Amino acid sequence: MAALGWLTPRRRSATARSVLAGEASAEAARKTSQELEALAGQAAPDEGPGEPEFPVVGDVRAAAFFDLDNTVMQGAAIFHFGRGLYKRKFFERQELFRFAWQQAWFRLAGVEDPEHMQDARDSALSIVKGHRVAELMTIGEEIYDEYMAERIWPGTRALAQAHLDAGQKVWLVTAAPVEIATVIARRLGLTGALGTVAESVDGVYTGKLVGEPLHGPAKAEAVRALAAGEGLDLSRCAAYSDSHNDIPMLSLVGHPYAINPDAKLRKHARERDWRLRDYRTGRKAAKVGIPAAAGVGALAGGTAAAIALHRRRH
Fold it and tell me: How do strand 204-209 and strand 238-241 relate by DSSP bridges?
């Protein structure tokens, strides 16, 4: 969570800070996955008849990389996390209204708005600075049960399970704090998570990041670094995302998938004959020209939920 002060999307190639962020995230992810394996052991791959041609059963040099927000889970992890922190009195009501508005926008548009996302990350960073890493990890477990578990897309979850059943490792790759991402990955039975790495000293968050947020080019650098460390062949790997911001990561692998894609990614995927999956019931709640009333309704619903939550607390 000190990774919570992160991410402004930048349309540029990887910089030295992107590489640093990616390598730090890969190192943290590998360490965490090894710890999880020691605790839970590795599930034996299901090699029964009827397995699809892809993913290839037993191909240990292949793996899958899944974006989190709006790909694996509806909405943004940071907004759900903020709601949980408000419940635990980490911040005041006016901050909750900001989180409600941001989440309403994200659910309506289905894409990352740079100003909203940056605002949420700045708020979260100021909230968790000075808190212990272990404390936020414990709270993250609780928040997953309260707000995130029911928002997992079943279709994407099934794709991840297909890779696991084939004996391949599956990683989340997200700009969310690596601690939150690790909780979600473990709850879903995945291998581990690549996320934004926040600096901590003696187990306490300093409010600084290692490198930069794991977004855009930094995600690609994290996947590249992890693949090198794990001995993976990226041409045999798969990646899944909803956002055009993740085109650098998707372009790294031999099997890119556009999941619940935004307009730019959908266009890019069609031009390159990438596979598409859309699990949203309304098939583009975020079309240009969506009725204004729908936007008002989403905002009103988010604000009403915030007010109701506040009243229940007092």
Answer: unpaired
Integer Cα distance of 269 and 65 in angstroms: 17
Q: Which residues contact 37 (CB under 8 A, 6 or more apart)?
A: none
CA 275 to chain CA centroid, Å, is 20
Choice among 59, 69, 119, 233 that is catalytic: 69
User: Tokens 């640093």 identify what position?
Assistant: 20
* Cα–Cα distance list, 147 to 18, 97, 246, 270 (Å): 31, 17, 25, 34
Tokens of 139: 């709270």
CA dist 190 and 270 (Å) reads: 29
Q: Provide the pLDDT confidence category of residue 198 given band limits of 50, 70 and 90.
A: confident
- Alpha-carbon gap, residue 103 to 80, rounded angstroms: 8
The β-bridge relationship of strands 63-67 and 192-196 is unpaired
**Catalytic residue (one of 67, 165, 246, 262):** 67
Q: Is the peptide bond before 55 cis (omega within 30 degrees of 0)?
A: yes
20-31 pLDDT, tens digit per residue, is 777 777 777 776
113 is catalytic: no
Average pLDDT along the chain: 76
Active-site residue 46, yes or no?
no
Mean per-residue pLDDT for 12-37?
Answer: 69
pLDDT top residue among 311 and 171 = 171
Residue with tokens 């927000």: 69
Residue from 219, 253, 190 nearest 7 by CA: 219
